[in-house]
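Lab notebook, bench 4. The sequencing result for the construct came back, and we need a structural model before the next group meeting so we can plan mutations. Quick request posted to the team channel:

Model the 3D structure of this chain.
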Amino acid sequence: MKTPPKFTILKEDYATVIALFGRFDAKGASSLWQKITQKISEGNGTSLILDLEKVNYLDTAGAAFIFYLETFGKTRGFKDISIINLKQEYSTLLDLAKNIRQKDFSKQIPQKLSFVENKGKSVSDFLLETKEFITYTGEITWALIQSLRHPKGIRWSDTFLVAERSGVDALPIVTLISFIVGLVMAFQAAIPMRMFGAELYVADLIGIAMVRELGPLMTAIVLAGRSSSTFAAEIGTMRINEEIDALTVMGLDPVKFLIIPRIVASTFITPLLSIFSNLMGMLGGALVITSMGYPIISYYNQIVSFVKWNDFAGGMVKCFVFGVLIAASGCIRGYQTQSGPSAVGISTTRAVVTGIVLIAIFDGIFSIIYFYMGV
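Done. Here's the predicted structure in token form:
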């Protein structure tokens, strides 16, 4: 049972005796701080005696409080300050508090690095971070291969939950962005096309651009900002709270337990959202074309005759790769979270930046490959 802290004062002509009772931790010391210092200020004599016989618990906060009382007593004119009945197990803590409080840390100024040293440190940190990223990528790839060979080992309940949060909940923002992009593209393309009386061919532009490029790319960027940041924040918080270490101690592989469900969910939900994005972009273009007097069936026939199945397949292949990149970048950045109050925020930002950069790089790679393949 925890004994609440308290104290008694004995004033004599030659000394002021303060007897402390109970538990002196951070909470207990703070509750009596003002009361005891006030009594010391009102004390008599030239000596201050702190009696710790009845103290049944003392931690570093309590030891720092005892040392503060000694220092405070000297400032109030007590020439002789002593501590009596101190238990042996508490003496080490009190010595530690005295040594720390008496040290002068003003001269411990961080060493300033030169320009060359600063840039060298930045390069070294970048290379180390790149090495960790590649290592985590290899671990995730191997775990994903093993999970696909043994699908029963995947935590499907968590996978479906992540798919719902990343997919269904992202439909409104994907709908809004895709519809507006299709609308704006149609308006901008219709201006030069009108000079040749070929406004209907705007449907070809909208169809091929949405299916091959803009649909997958916009969906991936939205998910990078929405889902990748969520994955980084969740795993980063678990890293700070040592929950990932707890999984390792329990014999569970954190990569299979946390990362694989998110990658599987993101891989399959990104193509579905991309199909929906294609549809919304084409509807935005349809609104513009019909406002120019063309029937909707003409717009539909124009798209169907121009957009081929290989265009649709090329966009879907991109989506699967983008889904893996989005989930992997978020999970890896979350896994790399350091300690500190802003660590999760930093990991979240890095996850979004990494995801968008990788999406742009791989989109360029796909464009080059499709060009040489004649797709």
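DSSP finds twelve helices and four strands in the chain.
Will bring this to the meeting.
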